[in-house]
Specification:
Helices cover 0% and strands 25% of the residues. The protein contains no helices and 4 strands. It has a two-stranded antiparallel sheet. A two-stranded antiparallel sheet has the order 2-3. A hairpin with a 5-residue loop joins strand 2 and strand 3. It starts with 20 loop residues before the first strand and ends with a strand. The relative contact order is 0.29.
């Protein structure tokens, strides 16, 4: 296998209206040898920190 796909659906009623959404998409993947790799749309400088505000790179609006 040379790829990973993830799909997600969020009920529109759970999303805030009238302001942009900032999403941080990230994953920690462990291979068969136990080696970890860190994946994200954007990594802030330094060690991987998925809670850092710079990691929330995808912006979108909730259609009303």
């Amino acid at each position: 296998m040379d790829r990973l796909e993830l799909g997600a659906e969020i009920s529109q009623g759970l999303l805030p209206h009238g302001r942009p959404l900032r999403l941080g998409l990230s994953a920690i993947v462990e291979d068969v040898d136990g080696i970890l790799s860190y994946w994200a749309l954007r990594h802030p400088p330094g060690k991987p920190d998925f809670h850092h505000t710079d990691a929330f790179a995808l912006q979108m609006r909730n259609p009303e």
